[in-house]
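Sample A.
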Amino acid sequence: MKLELNGDPPKNKKQMLERLREIVNAGWLEMPDDVKRYNGTGGPGNFLEDLLGLTVGNQDIADCLGWEVKYFTPKTALITLFHKEPEPKKILRYMVSKYGWEDKYGRLSFRHTIHGRSDRFAVYNDAGSIIVRALHDGNDPVPTWSHDMLLNIAGNKLRRLVTAEGERNGRKVTYKKIELYENIILTQLMQNLVNGRIVIDFDVREMKAGSDSLRNHGTKFRISPKDLKQIYEKHEVLGP
């Protein structure tokens, strides 16, 4: 079945669901070789966006008619809900300098995932903010996200969510299962960060050994696909 790439986006929920059904029913689809955004692990998700006619990409608003679209495979441990850098300014530079370790090129790298608590850090909900504190350095500067900051991005980007579970084989991809989630429970967002259901994932390093410049892959807020039902009021599987 031939589907159009980069066509007009759906105008309403009914059209969006019809197009998603067409994509699922199409089986294995070939991703064009000459499109760089289809390379790498994010390729199938980008391809799905193009099949839906979306142009939003990685912004702090939902992709399609107020619905955020996410792709994952059965082997995916965590999907990214959104990216948001902490405050204050230059706190990531401090984290790299204080807690980073040298890679094979001598660059300090800070890659660390916190499920509420790790061997070195814990997540706290304190004074209207989410804070990551080192377990043994109580007076150090800390990465901080205000409640308003997190509620704003989650409310704008994640109030309604479409997930597509699929499989990739080289340049071919198939989307096997579509699920819909509505009404994210914003009042429980902070608790889910503290209890580790929503994970904070740092991935930043020095551009060059000893330099002030950083290569930041984004501070991610992530969750296991199986836990999505716990943070939304409504869940359904898209039928044929």
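Sample B, a different protein:
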Amino acid sequence: MSQITIHAAKTHLSRLIQRACDGEEIVIAKGKTPMVKLVPVDAPKPKRQFGALKGQIKLDDAFFDPLPDEELDAWEGK
């Protein structure tokens, strides 16, 4: 996390915006008192990749068995 004064932020705003977009946390301070945090408006969401966990998860046949009545009741809030 970088803390920058308001004066320095005004002077280097475009650089600070790029650093924030690259993932760095930028805090703008008045003197030594933190005031605001500079963050991107919409961070890009990682795209889903079909089969990304292939070979990392193993399910046995019991996974597909029906749940016991007590557990079904718990899921349904009974």
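Observation for Sample B: The mean pLDDT is 90.
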